[in-house]
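Researcher: Please predict.
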Amino acid sequence: MKLGNLGTSRGKEIGWIVLFVGPGLLLALGIKFYPLFRGLYDSLFFFEGGWKPVYVGLDNFHRMFLDKTVQQTFFNALKVMLTIPVWVLFPLVLAFLIFQETAGWRVFRAVFFLPYVIAPIIVGQIFREILGLQGPLNAFLGLVGLKLMTTAWLANTFTAIWAMVAVVLWSFSGLGIITYLAGFATISDDIFDAAAIDGAGFLTKIFRIILPMTVPVIGYWTVLCTGGMLLWMFPFIHALTEGGPGHATMLPEYLVYITSFRFFERGYGTTIGVALFFVVLTFTFFQVRFMYEAGAPRQKQKGGAA
């Protein structure tokens, strides 16, 4: 009787698991895994007229490795990746100022998050005007005696990609601030009280308390930023520069779009997308691994304290 009840109980548990996990799993299979395997399949073909498949094997991959434009876009992506420390630390400092309830923190909490809720395409349209040669930024620089610094920020091959990154950072950092504030809420107030008694300053609290105790949150945000840099900048590129001037702001994800939907080379565009997927997968794998390794000592300390 007891064994029968045990079997019934397990059957119910499995049923609930299937009920709650099943739809999400099916959704993931349909939205994530099917496009991935279809992309791998399509990368082996050339599509005549944009629809008739002709098997070409690994020719698309060979062409991609020799393509100067593809090399330029991945080099641009590398330059963008070099700004990760700014993406990570800038919202962290702002979040800590809000967490410390600096004067006006309630207003700034809303102000800093507001850009994130504005559609990226609208942000791009706004900043295309602001950063234009006759835009407000150059007008301000001329007004304060820095006219020599004025330029067409988005039309200059040296400044275009950095200007675009600055716009995306402005738009995206609000989410980082909210993420960090959620992480700070897990730190006991007693630690900050003790630091205040010891006379710890702002930077001491950042480096001795915040950074060591929010490693998992920082790691999570770093992974999110990596994905954002390589996969979510399409609307900003499209609204600000369309990859120009030349290929100065062309990133792989935008090249996939150009190749597939403007030049109608579906197989080759998919090949570039597959390469981008494996690049992102490699970066995120090592970042997540580092995040868990860095968080492991903290978990052991908690276990020992318990």
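Model: The first helix runs from residue 2 to 42.
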